[in-house]
């Protein structure tokens, strides 16, 4: 079920920084940091799990599978990308119940038409305000606990302008959204206007390589931001390190990228628990091996 820590932090107006995780290794590493929460990035999860672009190609089942595994691998609250809710109102209710059961603490639902696209790429189209507001109402009704939070995202700035984005945000707050995510403001002034206008916890997508300025957390808080998500930094860092390492192998060069230590990695991934189990049940394991050999 949902971790109540995230709701408490938002109620107490504590700033939340959520690194983006995209697989189980990134989750386990991020879980060992001082991060207040983690963000399951749709962009990164679709890329790492399926090798596809974030263009509406992943299904609800694909993403629920990843959300379930990631939530089980961390003790921190997990914010998870739920795309458009994967369909109409009945789909939204099903998605919310599935994500909540998986252990997610906040689901992100956006107002794009299906198939949706990454919020920092062109060609996005939106559903009517009323349709998205109805999705938020259904999402709020479908959850079993108030600790499971509903984040409403709008991509309106790119296609309809900032004023439209603010009107949509207000409609989604009225529909019951616990947090608002206005995607892709292009400068600090737009971020300032959003912070002053929206009466709800705000999410900033600190996407490295995207359209929105990457700002210090203190400045984000001053602008009225409650949650900063960093969806791509870990993914891009890992991809750069892999590309560099594989090039070194092919060229018969020593590996030049920094490497996570073997001992540190085996400890992080859980080998110590395996060794402790073997030490405790060594006699039983010997019996099992002998029986299998007969």
From TrEMBL:
Keyword Lyase in the entry? The reply is yes
Q: Which residues form a coiled coil?
A: none
CDD domains associated with the record = ICL_PEPM
Q: Extract the GO molecular function terms from the UniProt entry.
A: lyase activity
Pfam families in alphabetical order: PEP_mutase
Q: Which organism is it from?
A: Ancylobacter koreensis
| Protein name, per record | Isocitrate lyase/PEP mutase family protein
Instruction: Could you list this entry's UniProt keywords, alphabetically sorted.
Output: Lyase
């Amino acid at each position: 079920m949902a971790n109540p820590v995230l709701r408490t932090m938002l109620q107490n107006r504590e700033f939340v920084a959520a690194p983006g995780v995209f697989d189980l290794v990134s989750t386990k590493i991020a879980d060992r940091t001082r991060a207040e929460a983690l963000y399951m990035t749709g962009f990164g999860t679709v890329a790492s799990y399926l090798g596809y672009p974030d263009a509406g190609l992943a299904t609800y089942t694909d993403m629920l599978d990843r959300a379930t595994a990631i939530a089980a691998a961390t003790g921190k609250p997990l914010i998870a990308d739920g795309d458009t809710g994967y369909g109409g109102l009945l789909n939204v209710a099903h998605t919310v119940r599935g994500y909540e059961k998986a252990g997610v603490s906040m689901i992100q639902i956006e107002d794009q038409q299906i198939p949706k696209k990454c919020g920092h790429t062109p060609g996005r189209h939106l559903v009517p305000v009323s349709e998205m507001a109805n999705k938020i109402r259904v999402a709020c009704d479908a959850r079993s606990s108030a600790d499971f939070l509903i984040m409403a995202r709008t991509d309106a700035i790119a296609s309809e302008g900032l004023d439209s984005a603010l009107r949509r945000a207000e409609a989604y707050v009225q529909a019951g959204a616990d947090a608002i995510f206005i995607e892709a403001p292009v400068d600090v002034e737009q971020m300032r206007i959003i912070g002053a206008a929206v009466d709800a916890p705000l999410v900033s997508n600190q996407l490295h390589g995207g359209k929105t300025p990457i700002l210090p957390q203190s400045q984000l808080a001053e602008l009225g931001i409650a949650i900063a998500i960093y969806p791509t930094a870990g993914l891009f860092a890992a991809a750069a390190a892999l590309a560099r390492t594989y090039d070194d192998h092919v060229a018969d060069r020593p590996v030049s990228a920094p490497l996570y230590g073997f001992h540190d990695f085996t400890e992080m991934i859980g080998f110590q628990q395996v060794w402790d189990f073997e030490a405790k049940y060594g006699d039983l394991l010997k019996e099992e091996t002998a029986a299998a050999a007969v």
